[in-house]
Design a protein that fits this description.
InterPro entries: Endoribo_LPSP/chorism_mut-like, RutC-like_sf, YjgF/YER057c/UK114. This protein is of the alpha+beta class and about 150 residues long. It has helices at about 5-10, 60-80, 105-120, and strands at about 25-30, 35-40, 40-45, 45, 85-95, 125-135, 140-150. It is globular.
């Protein structure tokens, strides 16, 4: 089954690939690896802002991380022309804006990790880091970057 068919079956519509907000490119391909720059949490109503442990809970944070995942997929699709070229999700690095006493960053980043497995199946299982940040660009709750292996 193609990834486009899988997305339709999952009722997932990818957003437009966001333009870079500063002096960098949204993705770089080298050899058979595609590095996608960090994607910040954004949805149909704009940026998803907040700090976990202050004004957001884990469920809201996981939804923000899922939004980052959708943007990562949109960037990969723009880079490759088709998500069918993804051989594997290699690694995700997730940054979670959170208070010093908040320790559930892994559960927040699961919002993106779970999406990758939903879309790619076993090829979506990946290495990962989930770290706390005192603040993220534009006040967003989550930022995630990805490395994909290309077939």
């Amino acid at each position: 089954m193609s990834i486009d068919s899988r997305l339709r079956d999952l009722n997932i519509t990818l957003p437009d690939a966001p333009a870079p907000a500063a002096n960098y490119v949204p993705y770089v391909q080298t050899g058979n690896l595609l590095f996608v720059s960090g994607q910040i949490s954004s949805g149909p109503d704009g940026l998803i802002k907040g700090r976990l442990g202050a004004d957001m809970d884990v469920t809201q944070g996981a939804a923000a991380a899922r939004a980052c995942g959708l943007a990562l997929l949109a960037q990969a699709n723009a880079a490759l022309g088709s998500l069918d070229r993804v051989a594997r999700v290699v690694k995700l690095t997730g940054f979670v804006a959170s208070t010093p006493d908040f320790t559930d960053q892994p559960e927040v980043v699961n919002g993106c990790s779970d999406l990758m497995v939903e879309v790619f199946g076993d090829k979506g299982r990946h290495a990962r880091a989930a770290v706390s940040a005192a603040a993220l660009p534009r006040g967003v709750a989550v930022e995630i970057e990805a490395i994909f292996e290309i077939a």
